[in-house]
Amino acid sequence: MSILYGVSPSPFVRKAMLAHAHKNVPYELKVTMPNSEDEEFRQASPTGKVPAYKTDDGVGFADSSVIVAYLERISTNHSLYPEKASDYAQALWLEEWGDSELMAATGALYFQRVIGPIFIKQETDLSRVDEILTELLPKVFNLLESRLSDENWLIGDNLSIADITIGSCLISLLHADYQVEQSRWPKLYSYNERFLALPIAQAQIANEKNMINNGPS
Ligand SMILES: N[C@@H](CCC(=O)N[C@@H](CS)C(=O)NCC(=O)O)C(=O)O
């Protein structure tokens, strides 16, 4: 069976886990902290970043986007990449923007409120939190609000890699006790509710809460 190296509360590992769950592809999660010196992990991830992956025929590589692209090649079940070329391009752009800008803004709050205090014993910096809430998050939310419609998902009726990536960031905000303001970002508010209600999101959140509540063992 394929091996996914990482820890479920990492937003990039979470993204890979959500994609496996959506496509119903089995894997083994080998709990691995970023920068672990484990030799097998380092063969797959020379830079020490998680997630990393080893296929069932023994080939290793890293990066959430690469892992999901690989998954799609081995299973077309519940495809995460739209068929139409322009939709496909939009989904990839949203994945890229989600992995960079949205991940940076949501990850900053998640770090201050969850990862810092629980995993590395670093106190929350309240002035940084204020800056994130008043500057970083509104900027990315305004863009997201402009890309959402009343349709189910970011690109039409089917969940795509764009939703998996952006949904992963929304789970970070849930753990960080952040509520999207309905009056300010109404489309994002209902999209957030829809994504978090998905069975794959619920299962992922339960898995992570277990680790967040108990801390790293
Ligand atoms: N582009 C990578 C980013 C992965 C990443 O930055 N992972 C973080 C954990 S959430 C990490 O391993 N950080 C350790 C480091 O940068 O040294 C992906 O999509 O997988």
Describe the protein's topology:
Elements: E1 3-6, H1 11-23, E2 28-31, H2 39-44, E3 52-54, E4 60-62, H3 64-74, H4 85-119, H5 126-147, H6 161-175, H7 186-197, H8 199-214
Parallel strand pairs: 1-2
Antiparallel strand pairs: 1-3, 3-4
Helix pairs in contact: 1-3, 1-6, 4-5, 4-6
Notes on the structure:
The chain folds into two domains: 3-74, Glutaredoxin, CATH 3.40.30; 85-214, Glutathione S-transferase Yfyf (Class Pi), Chain A, domain 2 (Up-down Bundle). Helix content is 60%, strand content 6%. The chain contains eight helices and four strands. The chain has helices at 11-23, 39-44, 64-74, 85-119, 126-147, 161-175, 186-197, 199-214; strands at 3-6, 28-31, 52-54, 60-62. Helix 1 (11-23) links the parallel strand 1 and strand 2 (28-31). It starts with a strand and ends with a helix. The mean pLDDT is 96. Glutathione binds next to helix 1 and helix 3.
